[in-house]
Design brief:
The chain is of the alpha/beta class. It is elongated. The chain starts with 5 loop residues before the first strand and ends in a 16-residue tail after the last strand. The strands form 4 sheets. It has a 5-stranded parallel β-sheet with strand order 2-1-3-4-5, with helices on both faces. It has 10 helices and 13 strands.
Amino acid sequence: MLQDKRITLIVSGGIAAYKSCETARALMRAGAHVRVVMTEHATKFVTPLTFEALTGSPVLTTEWQPGPKGPMPHIDVNRESDLLLVMPATANLIAKAARGIADDLASTLICARRTPIAFVPAMNAAMWRNPATRRNIEFLRREGALIFGPAEGLQACGDMGAGRMLEPAEVVDMMEMVFSPKHLAGKRVLITAGPTYEAIDPVRGITNRSSGLQGFSIARAARDFGAEVTLIAGPTHLTEPIGVKRIDVVSAREMDEAVQIELDRQRFDLFVSVAAVADWRPGAVSEKK
């Protein structure tokens, strides 16, 4: 879905800027053309030369540099972009975007945009919880902007909580979704995936070697096509696609119960049953090995 797409990667000043390097490479491996715009603060974390080496294109940092076609880079770059990807999106740049402030190349580019835009927030947990930041994010959402993340976890400052930027692979996964045709928009899809495990005793059980990959891949494709996806998964090491609701189960009975609960709770348009459900279970489960 990213083949020949023109992505403008706007890098703002945060410690997570280094992840944008891998994102640029991953987008190019997926067939996209990547142009990088950096704020002045971003250049303190990663040099423009790094992105120039990765993308093969000059990095734009100020409004006074010539654009691809002339002296107005904020107009030229927008004309040649299929999507603006702001990564990392700091609280400062998010606030500028929400309020229409255009005081450097990055914010002017966002203000003059004529294509879809996606923000990948990255900031301290307290900054993410700040009411002003929350208002700005909700405003951008209402205006049609895409918000990828943030994740929760340990941050560079040592704090724990929401505000950690998504990993490059997750961002590229979301980008695939953006450009997928929305054949299933407005539809609900229920999917079962993975093996089931039927306990014999506390350490033994009957199972199979199903990885769950087929069901998880179908869930990702349905999500990309615009569906609201619920994934009921047996024991597997896989991580569910972002935006997919996951329900974990272990045994065949638990999977059956979870399916029935979901069917009773709401109407689904499509049910895809690819879980490798066990054919047998012990008549009794021993409490001891």
